[in-house]
Amino acid sequence: MKTEYDLSTMKSRKNPYASKLKKAVNLRLSDEVMTYFKEMETELGVPYQSLINLYLSDCVSQKKKMTVSW
Question: Is-contact 38 48, C-beta < 8 A?
Fold first, then answer.
């Protein structure tokens, strides 16, 4: 491997994975929801943020509709 590279001749290109990157968001979740996902984190060994993302992604892929009643 060379000790130096000339990057001035290198052409830039768009990141092909840019559309798949995750965005940081702030959510207000109840203690009950956080406890549920944190327990699953301990049980499955998967970070709770990833579990929430997987669950929401599943809802999107199945086009689940929810009913809201106050």
Answer: yes
Q: ∠ CA 52-58-61 to the nearest 5 degrees?
A: 140
For 66, half-sphere exposure in the C-beta direction (CA atoms, 13 angstrom radius) is: 6
Q: 13-63 pLDDT, tens per residue?
A: 888 888 788 888 999 999 999 999 999 999 999 999 999 999 999 999 999
CB 9 within 8 A of CB 40: no
CA-to-CA distance for 54 and 61, rounded, in angstroms?
Answer: 10
Residue found by looking up tokens 């559309």 in the block: 19
What span, in angstroms and rounded, lies between the C-alpha atoms of 48 and 51? Answer: 5
CA 29 – CA 33 distance, rounded (Å): 6
Q: Looking at the whole model, is its pTM more than 0.85?
A: no
